[in-house]
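fyi for ur records
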Amino acid sequence: MARPVDAGKDQAILKAAEEILFSEGPQCCSMDAVAKRAGVSRATVYARHANRQALLNAVLRTCVQGLSGVLDMAPADQRGVRDALIEFGVRLARFVQSDAYRRFTRAIAGLDCSTEADAALLFQQGPRYALERLASWMAATTAAGLAQFPNPERDAEHLLGMWLGLDIMRAVYGMPPKRGPQELLMHVTEAVDLFLQMHPVRPTI
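which gave:
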């Protein structure tokens, strides 16, 4: 009889990998380093993730899903669309302003040519995956008649830019966040309201 999977070890491995990734950079996130920090054997890590790329993929997708979890629920009405966008925007903006993200962006900026595969994976499973989740949600809300996003991928990228502005570059340069919690909420709310004004729901004929 197969031994049951230990969910605690699964979480410990992902948590350890996330801590290393965002504090020391992808170049330090090896299978050995993750096993040591998680307090498990190297074999245990490999039993759950076939290789380092698979582990990084799991960490990034878990992170993005946590930030965008509000998009997993279909809004009931147009107010729900606005509320969901504000919630996601605030979560994302807080993450970009965090110390962990600033350390991460500086580590990414220092990657050399030998780690181009890492950079591509981090982009695809990080920012690109977040864009895809938002675009998919926009397409669903449009189909439900609750919003009008004619080009969901383009519209999602526009909204992400409105939310984050120069905050990503501040993180790259190691500058402190510009906005406190209340200012951040106001900034995201204003961006969402302006964005929705640009995409009004047109009545069906």
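The chain has a mean pLDDT of 90. thats all i got for now
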